[in-house]
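User: What would this chain look like folded?
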Amino acid sequence: MRLPATLAILLALSYGIAFAEEEYSFDFSEIEERALNLGGYFEFRPVLLGLDNNAALHKLKLYDRDKENTHEEYNFTALLDGSYRKGITEFHAIVNVDLTKSYLGWDEETTLYEGYMSLKPSSSFHFNIGKTTLKWGKGYAWNPVAFLDRPKDPEDPELAREGLVVISADYIKSFDGPLKTFSFTPVLVPVYDDINDDFGKVNNLNFAGRMYFLLYDTDIDFIFLTGQSKTNRYGMDFSRNITSNFEIHGELAFVNNYKKRFIDSDGTVFNDEYDATSYLLGLRYLTKSDTTYIVEYFHDATGFTESEVEDYFSFIDAGYDEYLASGDDSLLKKASNATEGNYNRKNFMKDYLYLRASQKEPFDLLYFTPSLTGIFNMNDKSFTIAPEVLYTGIKNLELRLKTTFLVGDSYTEYGEKLNNSRIEFRARYYF
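Assistant: Here's the prediction, encoded as structure tokens.
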């Protein structure tokens, strides 16, 4: 395995650049940073789901249980974010603990979201090794160019996510003129047993990179991923403030030889391979009255067509009818196997529109921020709409009440979800 040798080379480069830099001296007598920093939050989030007993995904997941109109969940989360800095070296870790009580009983999961070492021998060069979230892309709800990040949840895109184990570096250079800043971020992605083994084919070392330009006050990234774990991917994104309160952004991603697996209404499994081009366009606008609007259109070329989704739901219905008639659940198990890694994505079709409007302190109600979010499937015309209110009037405490309604006809994405409504309360205490 070449990973240790590669690490040694990158370490040598980091120290070589550090010594090559011209020496500067600063007076830090008035600036003192703590070596150890700890933070995070505790969260309690009860959820009430309004179940749709006639929906395909309800039949698939709960076919062997008594029918219920509602389902309760209780979620407890603790997230610890800590860092330690000594000289040019910094260690950073984020640990997340989830404890859930549902119809399946109690479930506990502890996940290291991030855990890496960073070397900063100069202001223009950084070196990192360990588990980290890169957060590539400019989109708010989706990021088609985030080849090394786990997908966001469009219904709650600001949630923390688990990263990948990588070796990366950052080189940053500033200029006078139209090009103000350039940076290059090369990334090595090892995929072996117990190291990023869910990323793709194991026993491979993959290479990715991002080139960043601040050109004419426009942020531009060029991104790529190559290796044997996944097919080659290339992308670009941009973001620009048209005015101080109006921003536009976009992403464009190419995936070579994408492999899509789908099932028809008779249960035959098909595999299709093609080059996929996905893109996102969005804007963010802040009014004088502190209303923020976010609008994004996302075309996902890796998604399923309307007819492919109808076949999938039709097969689930056939499997459920077979189970009711004979007690044989083999077709439902086949549908469940086809779901994993294919139809279980948050949004698995091709075209979506995201709309969000939030108003800070309406009618002089201090510390209140109501908002309304909608996600529209432009292929089958189903959608979800979620009003919520956020209260931050108590120090270090955030309270959120959110309801979500899912609307759609039979054999549509949101019409066949497990639930047709949900209400949740979130109390999050930061420390």
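The chain is about 15% helix and 55% strand. If you want, I can go into more detail on any region.
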